């Protein structure tokens, strides 16, 4: 789950942020239980995921991971994208990324009553260890890969995928550079469309 990208592509709007971050925990018609701004965030998240899955750069990046993780390659690419976004000084400098992530946690905490129980339960751990900022570090990527493996049914080892990440680092960065400007533009347009209804 590319948490940092979804947070960043909420464009500083707390209601959009909440929906964007909780979307994977909201099933079926329960999305309509939320205020309209959060509903927009939920729909934006899903549109971003669909765009990401069908982007050529994602397809090329998944090709590296498929021998090790099969159908889960897309989830590993999500983490890879967050790593390179966290380092992207064309978006924010290192000095700006940390305050950004802290504001994300504040906005989520202020809306805690609206968060699904499972997401609310992991928020203290996420904020205490600042997952969003630490995606810039390879050690955090290895840990995230381990978490992905634990949540799958068929994988037992994360190190082969992490080795692929290290070995193909330059190529994966090129995939990110080809992808992120496109998804950012898409998200801006999709959010404007949702909010114009």
Please, could you describe this protein's structure?
The protein is mainly α and 197 residues long. It has one domain. The chain is 73% helix and 0% strand.
How would you sum up this structure in a few lines?
The protein has 11 helices and no strands. By secondary structure, it is mainly alpha-helical.
Total of DSSP H or I helical runs spanning 4+ residues: 11
Query: For the CA atoms, what is the radius of gyration?
Result: 16 Å
Q: Which class best fits the helix and strand makeup?
A: mainly alpha
* Residue-averaged pLDDT: 96
Q: What general form does the structure show?
A: globular
Low-confidence stretches: none
Number of strands: 0
Domain tally: 1
| SSE topology string | HHHHHHHHHHH
- Residue fraction in strands: under 5%
* Main sheet characteristics: none
Distance between the termini: 28 Å
Question: Would you spell out the secondary-structure blueprint of this structure?
Answer:
Blueprint: H1 3-8, H2 14-22, H3 36-53, H4 56-69, H5 73-86, H6 94-110, H7 117-128, H8 131-134, H9 138-151, H10 159-167, H11 169-195
């Amino acid at each position: 789950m590319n948490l940092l990208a979804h947070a960043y592509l909420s464009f500083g709007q707390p209601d959009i942020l909440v929906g964007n971050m909780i979307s994977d925990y909201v099933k079926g018609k329960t999305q309509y239980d939320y205020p309209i701004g959060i509903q927009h965030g939920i729909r934006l998240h899903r549109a971003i995921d669909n765009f990401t899955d069908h982007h050529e750069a994602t397809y090329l990046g998944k090709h590296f991971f498929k021998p090790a993780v099969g159908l889960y390659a897309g989830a590993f690419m999500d983490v890879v994208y967050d790593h390179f976004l966290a380092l992207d000084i064309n978006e924010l400098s290192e000095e700006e990324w940390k305050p950004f992530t802290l504001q994300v946690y504040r906005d989520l905490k202020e809306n805690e009553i609206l968060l699904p129980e499972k997401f609310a339960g992991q928020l203290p751990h996420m904020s205490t260890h600042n997952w969003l900022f630490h995606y810039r570090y390879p050690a955090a990527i290895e840990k995230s890969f381990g978490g992905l493996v634990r949540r799958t049914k068929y994988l037992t080892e994360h190190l082969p995928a992490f080795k692929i990440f290290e070995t193909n680092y330059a190529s994966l960065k090129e995939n990110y550079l080809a992808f992120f400007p496109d998804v950012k533009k898409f998200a801006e347009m999709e959010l404007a469309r949702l909010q114009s209804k």
